[in-house]
Each structure stands twice: as structure tokens, then as C-alpha cells.
Write a structure and sequence with these properties.
With 455 residues, the protein is mainly alpha-helical. It is built from 20 helices and two strands. It has one domain: MFS general substrate transporter like domains (Growth Hormone, Chain: A, Up-down Bundle). β1 and β2 form a beta hairpin.
Length: 455
Amino acid sequence: MPNANAEMPENTQDHRPYPKPAYAWSVVVLLLLTYIISWLDRQILSYIINPIKMSFDLNDTQIGLLLGPAFAIFYILLGIPVGWLADRKSRKVIIGCGIALWSVMTAASGFAKNFTHLFMARIGVGLGESVLTPSAVSMISDYFPKEKRGRAISLYMTGISLGTAIGSILGGWIVGSVTSTPTVTLPLFGTIESWKATFIVVGLPGLVLSALVFMVREPLRRDRVALGRTGKTETSIAEALSYFWSRRGAFFSLWIGQCAMTVTGYAQFFNPELFRRNWNWGMADIGLAIGTVILIFGPAGANVGGWIADRFTKAGDIGGPMRATFIAITILTLTSIAYPLMPTPWLALAGLALSTIGGAMASACGATATAGISPNQVRAQATAVYWVIINLAGLFIGPPLVGFLTDSVFGDPTALKFSLAIVPAAVGLPCIALQWWGLQRYRAEAQKLTASATP
């Protein structure tokens, strides 16, 4: 097999064939499964908030820290270095090691004795998951030509919705079990609290996926161009960051605009509590209802987003992915302001369905848009910087701000609905304006890359 890192000279035609579609799509499905597991591991916590609060005597602000900053610390700090590594070394090895780490740390959450232990375990989960999307998007981009990347990346991005949906349904069922059976006995682990057993059972299966990823063939790298005055096709982190900054009108209008997606999305980790506090629903019913909504409308939104981006591109709009992202953020923001304030739970679920469509579209199109203006040798780093920015905002603003508003501003647990409406309004509306402003700048940058890159 040819060297996966082999380069083509700048501005020469690259006639190397892409992998067979069946194999390429099978890799996308495997990466999708890893993404589902990663989101299941982080989502499950939001359904066992109450048992954890009772076990460790926590408040909403501390829960917000577990949902956000604890996970984000290394997820964000290592994102850019991991992207740099993925632009040079085997991406499948990086992903396989990351899966193994986050799976073990999820299981380790089940052995926490206090808030600090659980906080540290969540840091480990974020450390492992930081490697996945930058490496996966880079791999997928090298498995498919440009006109097919939108759908491929969109399928991968459905992992957010599927993982969240499975976490919701499983989480609701688990809470019902915890209520009736406070402790369980697991082989090798003995008798432990049911919510702790949840982390162990959810975490360990990821080790199987880790082994499968190591068996994948690394794709050839494509779309490499000379960067900077020296004409080098290898870049340091500093050079990559300089490249993004010199094109900040395109990159940062996209990336900062996408913060609306993550701030709103992570704030929605409080959705189970919204339905419990406002409408007195049981967690099993909440998990089934929210999980079903996300299971149906999340993948639909992601795939519709990819389809729209590809249609715009085929119609001659080289800024198609960014244009689709703008549409998605608009849908997400407006519906996320509305659904927490609905008078009935059924109207809230209807609004959540629309919000889910917008969020899934934004997730899929944002990754595709980033790849669309990134040369190959900085593509994983571009995805990593994008992921760092949106998750820095999402994890440090979303859940903590919701908890702070509920505890310290309103001072009333039932005011959670107002907190959940304020957060997307404050962040989403400016982001919509920013992405509209950046659309022409994105188109100009995409055109430059197409003119200078090898196919």
C-alpha cells in the first residue's frame, strides 16, 4: 500500500484514486459508532443528576461544572496539539488510543467517592474525546472527493444525535431502576450504587470499538498546498494558527458563529430537569420522550444539512456549507428560545424537535465548512481549533450559566425554563449576524483554496 502521508507536488494533478465507496462508507460507519459512544458517555450524566446530587450533596452550579468545565479542561487544551499530530501521524492510531482512554475514564467515574473524584474522572473523559473529531473529519475528507464530503461528514455527525438519544432513553430507564433498586451487584465489582454502575456499564464497551479502529486502513492525504513564504507543505502549530488568523474573516466568522450551537446544545443537558421540575414527569418518561425526539430529528437534521450543503455546492455556490450553517444556526436559535417557555410539555417537545433539527444541521455543516477552506496539512488542526473555540464557549458558558441563573439570579429551581431561554437568546442572535457577515469572506477563501490546491 502506498505511504499514507505521501505528498503531491504543489499545483500538479493528483490522479490517485479514492478508496472504493463501500470501504470508505464502512469506515464512516465505524467512526459514527465511536462518536455515538463518545456522546453516550458524556450525555448519560445529565440523566443521573438527581441521584448524584443526593449522593454527594451537590447544587445546580456544581452539576453545571461537571457537565461543562470538568469535561472541557483537557478536551479544549489538547485539541490543537492533537490536530497538529493528526496532520502528521496515523489518525487511526490517535483515534484508537483516545477511545480506549475515554472508555476507561467513563468506567472510572463509577468509583468516585465525592465531587472531586467525579470531576477528575470527567477531565479524563474529555482528554480521551479530544482526539476524535479532528482526526475523524481529516480521515473522512481524504476518503471522499469534495462533492461527496458533505454527506459523509454529515453521517458521522449524526453520532451527536444518536448518542444523545440513546443516552436519553437509557438514562431515563436507569433512573427508574435507581429509584427502585438503589444498589446493584456487578461481576468483579461487587455491590455498588446503581448510578455508579451506569458509568461502568456504559464505559467499557468502547474498548471493543478501539480495537476495530486500529484495523482501519489510513487514507492517502490530499489537497496539500504550499503555505507561507517558504512554500513548505508541512506546518508548525504557530504557522497553522497564523494561517487561520490571516484569513480570520472566513474562519472566525464561521467558528465563533458556531458557538451558538454548542452553548445552546450543552445548556440543553438540563432538559431532563426542565421536564421534571415544570411538569413533574418521571425520568423514565422524560428519557423516552426526549430520546425519541432526538433519535428521529437529529439524524434527519444532520443528513438534511449535508444534503443542502452539497446541493448549494453543486449549484455553483462554493460557500454552500457556510450558507447551510447560517440557515441552521437561525433555526436552532429561534426555536431554542421558544421551547422552554411553552405552556405544555407536548408543545415543548415539538419546539425541541425543531431545535434538534437546527442543531444537527449546524453540527454537520460546520465541520464540512471548516474542511472546505482548509488545506490538507492543516485540516485536522483547523477542525481542532474550531472544536476548541466552540467547546470552550459551549462547555464554559452553557451549563454553568444555566445553573448560575437558576441558583443565583432567579433563586428558584422552577425558573430553570427562563434560564434555558435566556442563554440561546444572548448568544445565538449575535452569532446569526456574524455568520451572515462572514458568508462572502468564506466564499472568497474557498475559491482561493480551490484554485491553488491539488485535487
